[in-house]
Amino acid sequence: MAISLVTLLNTIDFHFLQPLPCLSVDDKEIIMIESLCKKLRFLQAFLEDSQKNNINCPAWTDLETEIRDVAAEAESKIESKLYKHYLFYNEKTEIRDLPVKPCESLHQTLQQVTADIESLQRRILQIQNNHSVEPPRTNAAIQNIKADSSSKRSTQPNNVMVGCDDEFDTIMHKLISHSNNLEVISITGMGGIGNTTLAQRVYNDKAAIASYFDIRAWTTVSQQHNLRDMLCDLLGSNDTNRDVSYLANQLRQKLLGHRYLIVIDDIWSTQAWDDIYRCFPEDFNESRVLLTTRLKQVADYASSGNNLYSMRFLNLNESWNLFYKKVFVEKKFPLEFEKVGRGIVEKCQGLPLTIIVVAGLLSSSSNKPSLNQWENVVANLDLLLNTDPEMKCSKILLLSYNHLPPHLKACFLYFGIFREDSVIKVKRLIRLWIAEGFLKLEFNKTMEEVAYAYLQDLVDRCLVQIDEWGNFDNKIKYCKLHDVVHSFSLREAQREKLLCVINEKNNVGLATSSLDRKACRRVLSYQLISHIDDEPISRSHDELRSFLYLPHHSIISVYFNSRILPYSKLLRVLNMSQSYLNHLPREIVNLVHLRYLALYLVKGASINDYQWCKLRCLQTIIIEDYSASFTPNNILGLPQIRHVHFSHMSLNYLHLPKLVQGNLQTLSSLSLPHRLQTELDFKVIPNVKELGIHLMGYNRFYKMPYLGEEIWGSLPPISMEGLLNLHQLENLKFETDPHCPKCDSKLLKAFPPNLKKLTLGGTKFSWDDMAIISTLPNLEVLKLRGDAFCGPEWKATRNGFCKLKYLQVHAYSSLKHWSVDADHFPVLERIFLNHCYLLMEFPIGFGEINTLQLIELKNCSSLLVTSAKSLQEERRDLGDNKLVLQFYPGPRCNFRKEKLRVTKQVPRLLHSQSQRLNH
């Protein structure tokens, strides 16, 4: 596989050829390096062609293996020389913002690598010229199937349900039938047949389910169940440090007295069911539990009476409808392909995941596919697949994977670092891809844009699913893999020696021999960090590029073992964000190849005087530290830094540094004094797109060392007018601590007009000041937290918030009365109110906003919920069923006393749902 060539090319580009390279080289050196890159691309093309043409020849197979090993060895040689060179430079000079010039030994290494690559190139040409192999034979299934950058991109999550309408109607009837008992309904079937998709379709039903149940909650279990994680999912809590018994009691209390629907997805054992089922109270109020499982014995064990439903394979018409949606509707393929497409669908034997993956393979072809190409797919399916559906799915996944471009292969296999069934934040995924060196840089595109295009390509190929869209940018915010696809990616990543997994039972996911030199380069650990310097990991130190500590359970406190550092000189990624570090060794700043660093520090683990300027390659740094101030001016001046995240009160200084590189895109959170004589110069961070600011008052946590409180009080409030110079800023989070007084409305006038997302917290503006924010021309998301605005009444003015789509009001607002008209929020789609206890009536003006689709109420007055339900019913009476109301009762609410009963409306809602399905 050509992953080693991709990362070698990116390593050379990163250090020598990018616009702001880590090393400064002269023109003669540039010519040699560019020549080397050209030769590497020749080898890359050879590997791609041999795989695409399915050449089965021992001479070529041996050569492919040798190319992979030579490329990996070459990358290690170059980075090892760079490691010594950077360390030497860091010790000898104080001018750390100037490019480093390469030494003679590095030059010699590059010459040796070039000679090795030339030798491979000559052997390839010799084999081709001597005709020692048969002419390339076309594997017709994938001839010329390449990603098309101009194809129509997916705009919906790709887990659409086709068929199984009878099963859907039956389960819906069971869920909202009038049986008072707590009932458990099970859906069972093999992986990839649609268990989860059917459950999601039921769970997200707007017409009946969302209105019928007081509480809905979902948890995904997977093979290795963890009760604490399940409880936290169902509670909607991130507090994983609580005792399991406490969480279980909290869940019982939350559900007690409410009609609830709980979905337990992908459960594998009766023990997991016994552990969680005891938390569900029986109130004889028509509550339901819906579970999905691949194991019939689990479904039999958990189900109530005759409530087990086995998923069937799709019939031919349903299979064709699913294929048609993916290929002909989304991708606009001409209808003359239909006859061939039906032949392809018939070979898939009704397994939805198989149909989707084949559709993704064909959909990634160019705008002018040939009928011959599709006919060859049909001809080859019989040769590639047997009659066993699970084996068929695995082989089709292998077919689709084998013909990904090399850069996409690495990105796809990297999904193996995430836990099965986990929802993956796209920002995090992209930054890890960038740090690992998987991207092929493109002219006039940022690395983030290139990485997002890779993700979109994998989505288009139906290998990655969309879980959630962003609120304002129409981009994928969270993604995930089907568990069958995840198992495949992890298995292939381990086979390709890209990734090693150390599980919580102290077992290594690969054979020991594969962890030797030239083997595994990335390690994912579920164990305690103390094990990572033991055998066999220490033997792979020359190849180790990444270490990610992602424990299955809650965040725990660990001691970072410094003995790993000498074995990690080429480390690029160090992720310890899910463990509290009691100590961080100073030697960490000698990991000069680090590009991604994520830490969680506890009290006493101060890093304020570390020489962070040594980490010239650092792109992303994430440090959570709630106990100590941090003044990392030298980090913001690093040449490659792109994303800086610190907890508030950690990034604590008076002035931005004089030198900040243009790569910086994210800076959060920047703690600033509420009072300051001078104006901040934001011009030094001109390309920042995301900025977090936390204003601090004069208190024991933030004291000016040279000012008394009296002098502090005489200083003017800090000026933020410099924000107007941030023309790239789209996302601003502005919060204050409790010691800050009310913010002046002048601050709102400093917000740049290009803002798309604004979060305010604790600022204590008056509701009249909202008129200033309402004029921001591009604002699409507004989040108000912790008394961002104070006062009992918000009277919306006309013609405001012309582009606002999402509004959130959160955390014990003093708001009592709120008047709205349609002109004020003309395109609003979602509104979320949380802890608004004093607000008793939902503004009737929202009923006139035709774009409004979702109202979410959490920990609010039952009167507010009743008012919102009345508004929803009025919309339904007018024939508009698209408005969904979701409410989550808090401890101070008693919905059973004032709840609007909808039992009488259920038959009408089911009839309406049935009509729409038939249509």
Description:
The chain is an alpha/beta fold. Among the domains are: 135 residues, Single alpha-helices involved in coiled-coils or other helix-helix interfaces (Up-down Bundle); 146 residues, P-loop containing nucleotide triphosphate hydrolases (Rossmann fold). It contains 26 helices and 30 strands. Strands 9-10-11-13-15-16-17-18-19-20-21-23-26-28-29-30 form a 16-stranded parallel sheet. A five-stranded parallel sheet has the order 2-3-4-1-5, with helices on both faces. A three-stranded antiparallel sheet has the order 6-8-7. Helix 2 runs parallel beside helix 4, helix 12 packs parallel to helix 14 and helix 13 runs parallel beside helix 15. The C terminus is likely disordered.
Radius of gyration: 29 Å
End-to-end C-alpha gap: 48 Å
How big a fraction of the residues is strand?
15-25%
The top level CATH class name of the domain at 165-310: Alpha Beta
**What level of helicity do the residues show?**
25-40%
CATH topology of the domain at 165-310: Rossmann fold
Give a quick set of tags describing it.
Single alpha-helices involved in coiled-coils or other helix-helix interfaces, 16-stranded parallel sheet, globular, Rossmann fold, alpha/beta, 5-stranded parallel sheet, disordered C terminus, about 900 residues
Summarize the structure.
By secondary structure, the protein is an alpha/beta fold. 41% of the residues are buried.
